[in-house]
Design brief:
It is built from 3 helices and 14 strands. The protein is mainly β. The strands form 2 sheets. Strands 2, 3, 4, 5, 6, 7, 9, 10, 11, 12, 13 and 14 form a 12-stranded mixed β-sheet that branches. It starts with a helix and ends with a strand.
Length: 265
């Protein structure tokens, strides 16, 4: 009986260890002394984008879904963030500027950080949404293994239609529902957006240097009520990283790193 009990307890603690990350946000990632998180020979993420120092292009950057449809996702609570896992194939096309033929990627999942991890000209935003995908074809496939699209949010009191689709549904882990990603962009205003790109690491351990990052400017709308749903999980939750949020601190730009800015003429 004793050996059986010890076996059950060992299994229980193994499962708990697997579910709870061995790192935290108590120091904003400064104590992540493992994996690639301390590799200063590559560009660590996130960064504060200074478009005055970037390599600029005055040609359009287009970012749009190949298929316009609602898609099923699964809500996964990871404690340090929550994830919307794509359950259906969803293909996006990215055309950085006119001399490219474009790159396509398969969207895998979406994660959230409050406050934001990336910054624009040193400004921190209340929320950042990160879309992760695997390249399927195109130029970028030969540069990075994966792509990450960063959406920053500004609290201006306006309700965000994309967030409105699911915030009230996040009551039970592994809940499944449909979202329409096209609500992120309004077709008649797509030319107002600018994009900043760089090759960098993941913002969580093991900080793998495999991503092509694209940060969208200007930030998206979010209301007070919507932002509260995120802040009560992390930023305003004293039991989570003492209420400092779930964002890694901004990393220094290394000399060999280049930020590409895509601004509409």
């Amino acid at each position: 009986m004793t050996y059986r009990l010890l076996g059950i307890l060992s299994l229980f603690f193994a499962l708990v260890s697997a579910a709870v990350p061995f790192w935290n946000y108590n120091k904003g990632g400064k104590d992540w002394n493992f994996g690639g998180c301390t590799d200063t020979s590559v560009q660590q993420a996130p960064i504060s984008v200074d478009y005055r120092k970037g390599r600029g292009f005055t040609a359009p950057f287009y970012f749009f879904p190949r298929f316009h449809k609602s898609t099923e996702v699964e809500y996964v609570d990871l404690e340090w963030t929550f994830r919307l896992k794509m359950l259906e194939e969803y293909i996006y096309t990215v055309i950085p500027f006119t001399i490219y033929h474009g790159s396509t990627f398969k969207l895998q999942y979406i994660e959230f950080h409050a406050p934001s991890e990336h910054r624009l000209m040193g400004k921190e935003y209340p929320l950042e949404m990160q879309m992760y995908g695997n390249y399927t074809e195109g130029v970028d496939k030969h540069i990075c293994k994966e792509i990450a699209i960063s959406f920053l949010f500004e609290n201006n009191g306006k309700t965000n239609p994309f967030l409105s689709q699911f915030l009230h549904k996040l009551t039970r882990n592994n809940t499944k529902f449909n979202v329409t990603l096209e609500t992120l962009f309004q077709i008649d205003s797509v030319t107002k957006y600018h994009f900043y790109g760089y090759k960098g690491s993941r913002t969580v351990p093991y900080c793998d240097y495999i991503l092509c990052w694209y940060i969208i400017d200007p930030p998206m709308d979010i209301s007070d009520a919507q932002l509260k749903e995120f802040n009560k999980r992390w930023k305003d939750n004293k039991r989570f990283a003492e209420g400092r949020g779930n964002n890694r601190e901004v990393q220094e730009m290394i000399e060999t790193a280049t930020v590409y800015t895509f601004r509409h003429p």
